[in-house]
Specification:
The chain is of the alpha+beta class. The chain contains one helix and two strands; from the N terminus they run βαβ. The protein has a two-stranded parallel ribbon.
Length: 64
């Protein structure tokens, strides 16, 4: 990846079974990437509260 643009990151409930420490580290990493603004992050989850720290520009709620 270059510093000008990063590859998109897609997570499909990746932290569902992670322990609290691992989840905290992963969220800190994703938060840093999101702040840089060069990489699009797409998170698919049934527990949106896990990702509140990412300060998203947009939420898209998919209904059943």
């Amino acid at each position: 990846m270059s510093e000008e643009s990063g590859a998109p990151v897609v997570l499909d409930d990746a932290l569902g079974y992670a322990d609290p420490i691992r989840r905290q580290r992963m969220l800190a990493t994703l938060h840093r990437i999101a702040r840089e603004g060069t990489t699009q992050i797409v998170v698919l989850t049934c527990e949106p509260g896990r990702f509140d720290r990412l300060a998203p520009d947009a939420y898209v709620r998919l209904e059943a």
